[in-house]
Amino acid sequence: MRVVITSATVNEWVGINEKMNALYAGDSSRLQVSFHKSGVGILATTFSLSKLIVEIQPDLIIQVGIAGAFNEKLLGKVVLIEEEFLGDLGVEEDNRFKDAFDMKLENANEFPFRKKGLANPWLEKYNLLELAKVTSVTVNEVSTRRERILQLQKKYVADIESMEGAALHYVGLQTNTPFIQIRAVSNVVGERDKSKWQVNDALAHLTNTILQLLDRLYKLK
Hints:
The protein is α/β, with parallel strands linked by helices. The chain has one domain: Rossmann fold (3-Layer(aba) Sandwich), CATH 3.40.50.1580. It has six helices and ten strands; from the N terminus they run βαβαβββββαβαβαβα. β5 and β6 (96-99) form a beta hairpin. α2 (41-56) runs parallel beside α5 (165-175). It is globular. The mean pLDDT is 93.
């Protein structure tokens, strides 16, 4: 099984790489793990993952990273993304955000979308640790305005926000490449005082979670 662990930055998976069972980095026919940096944002991630899939044809892509939560109760937790929404493809007018589906530029139920969302169909098979499943919204510009934050949370009933998740879901669905997205919540969306962020703790929890997942994947028949 060929597994690729990807993230926007190396820092988000370097701990996994350092602590991972050396067996998985070798020529084991059961589990071969490699690492990939996609770059930041939807554009870079869509291109780099598309290129990766063509060149490597992985059996599973695991996107890892930190994220901000709309609900502070998720702070410090590691979660699995069940469904992604595009949060900034559209127009803001009359104090409302109208996405491409509202504007009739895209069909909300035309593959790979379903009711505007990009749902992951591989969760039942690969959520081996039974992580809590949440909904995410992806934006290229991190949300800081309270009005915008409430807007996104209400419109998409989102639990967390990231900058690359929807790219993974879109490319995975379009190419029929199994994927899962696992995020550790480091901060509350809109909090710009980084002294209040829990980045180190979030990365430590994320690393431990992925190490456990790899061990489970190795035993998977």
